[in-house]
Amino acid sequence: MPGGADWPSVSVVICCFTEARWELLLHGLASVQSQTLRPEQLVLVVDHNEDLYRRLGVYRRLTGALLGVEVVENSGPRGFPAPATPE
What we know:
- By secondary structure, the chain is of the alpha/beta class.
- It is built from 2 helices and 3 strands.
- It has helices at residues 22-33, 50-63; strands spanning 11-16, 41-46, 69-73.
- A 3-stranded parallel beta sheet has the order 1-2-3.
- It starts with 10 loop residues before the first strand and ends in a 14-residue tail after the last strand.
């Protein structure tokens, strides 16, 4: 596996908000974790969905999956802000 000073440091943030895309979410996480250049940090942000946040915790405990994934709840405003428009 690549590593060392010749390779960039990579962090990945994945945002989610619904359990309706559970399988797609798990597939996306597995895809990121299987890349040749693995992220130094992988953060999964759950946007105002306590059920999804709890489900991820249960899934982690029961399967041992999501190792190295930091799962956090969005404590700020719901959704994503619109990009700033250049003046």
